[in-house]
User: Fold these one by one.
Assistant:
Number 1:
Amino acid sequence: MGWSMQARRFFGDAWRFLGLAVTRHRGPSEGNRGFVRTIDPVIELNGISNINGMWRSLLMRIDLHREPADVEEVIRQCVDALQDGNVLVLPTETVYGVGAIISHSKAVERLLRAKGRPPGQPFSLAIAGIEMLHDFSPDLSSLAQRLARRCWPGPVTLVLPVDVEMPVLRALPETVRDAVLAGGMIGFRVPHHPVTQTILGELNEPIVLTSANRSGRPEALTVDETLRSLGDAVDVALDDGPTVGTLPSTVVRVDGDSWSILREGSVKRETIRKLTAKIILFVCTGNTCRSPMAEVICEKLLADRLRCMPEELEHRGYVVMSAGIAAGADQPASYYADATVQHRGLSLQGHRSQLLGDTQVRYADHIFALTRGHREAILSYWPDADTRLSVLRTDGGDITDPIGGSLGEYAACADRIEEEIENRLDRILAH
């Protein structure tokens, strides 16, 4: 029970994937070899590169792990180059990518010629964040929002339905639309590499992005490999040394409430399956009384509605958990809380308290605060959770804390929790 046991057991590889996505981007001063190996790159302007005996010119080659230079200046140079219609090689958390901004049709056409990709294999759009999706698809399904929230930034490309009448798409030249649009869908990705991510944020428009290699050839793991493969099509190369990974992003098609893997890359199918699960999160203060009772009661009600055992909910795509806004770590449920649920045939023997944190809030599809104060506290730290957060009581009132009360008061609290979850169950199942 609880976040630390149930969720970590359920997500498995997904948990490790997220851990990598966070820790591998720490800077050198934090003692972790990140994607940006130092913050002092070298910029070689109008330089000549000798790549395995092949000499070619570059407008700019930027080395992110040599001295001296300024990362802010590097980002400015790259943004300017893209806005001027240049084609850039960019590092990502997977393999090297090559791209041009969506508003420069000539640059996108050069990218198409350099890639040599056959018709019907569109490029993806690299975007700065989920917010930019609404320019293309204002009505994202719950599943699409869930995967975007959990997988980005990171090595997952989501192929999503778009509205071809949206201004951003109508304004594009036909060659650019054809390069990214297929069957009313576009692939989107939010790279996790910090420099590439910052460039996207500064641009405020998508980059048409593809792996930095000729179609049919192996993915490029170094800048030298990209230049050998793409030749003079590249104007600027942002060099962060050999890539950490060797596999491209995993491509997932999402249409309504269904999904499929179009290409399995660095994130495996089973991990994606787990990341599609609906997560219901209950939040109180110490995570030892109200929210743990709500967790196991909700599991029982969900299982009854789905006609399965509570332990089978994971395989049906549901995870229920709890946390506290001021919880100590690994504390057991209170004696009366456990005794109360035992009278219902449930148990909190395995529960350990968990402090509410960023990952729980970002992952949860439904967050139920036990009081108005808990809701306000959550919003003060995570205002973006507003649309997924509500007080458990449908009348907006509080579930009173039974701490220090009698077993009867705990039982009354559990009864009210069960009643309110019953009132919410249809919405939980629908969304």
Number 2:
Amino acid sequence: MIRPLQELKTIKINNYVKKVNRLFIDWKLPHYLRSFWPAIYDENGNFIYTPRYRKEFLKKNSNKLKVDIHEVINELIL
């Protein structure tokens, strides 16, 4: 079952209890995503997993094109 993580007050990660709100702050999760950030629960409603947030998850619109050019120089030994 998938429901918003914000429904929980705390979660247990590696035998450490952490407030959900603090977790969102640590991840720097934008406020507009916090109300519906997903969490997976078992059939009894026990929390199982939530995906971690990273800024790279959000697609940024940009008119810039970034190209990385790597050049390998072979030295010839005569």
Number 3:
Amino acid sequence: VATTMYEHHEWSYHDNHHLLHMSAERGKTIQKPVLVCIPPTATTAVVYSELLLCLALQGFRAVAVNLHPFLDFKPLAKSFIKFLDELGLREVTLFGSELGSYLGLVISQSYPKRVTSMIMTNPVVDP
């Protein structure tokens, strides 16, 4: 688990980049874009551990972030983009679950050039 901080938001995350050598050994090339997983608020990035391993074996880099308490989605989205900048990720696919899907929608609407696609499970949407 690594941690970084932007705009008073701490981002702790799991990144499978250190496992990608296993896919190269199996003859797989690294795929783009990177998948960034945003969990529901009641859990952490650990729920994506097996997914990150499976994706690494197939040549996909994936990052799973931990959400922290927040009140406003717009500043959190701005902080999230700075987090992506720190990781050198220009374009990503977002995978959001529950409230994580709503944050993903805010990010994709606010920064459309940064999000190539989005996957949502049990999405929370604003009526």
Number 4:
Amino acid sequence: PMHPAKKTWDCAKPPRDDHSAPSWLTASEFQDVPSVAAAKVKILASLLRLSTRTVIYTGAGISAAVVGQAARSGQNTVGWKTNPRAAKPTFTHYALGLLGQEGYLHSWVQQ
């Protein structure tokens, strides 16, 4: 059975100030329970194996763990600001790099 995601950061504001959004769409962050995340990973893996032209589109969010910043928290206190050369790749960077090396990603668009 699917379980609802757990809210890990609550925010009533929209994701961005420079774009309109419906009132239900906020910058709150959620995390799936492990069983749901595992099911989603299996589905994604199947889709990647079937795809012959996979393009990923990512933004600054894949580096959020490095800079210590949630979507709109305004926090940016660790990582590259204090010492740019000390910043390390996130799990997402490594995972996407490995998928590319293994031939599962064909293009990567970064905003």
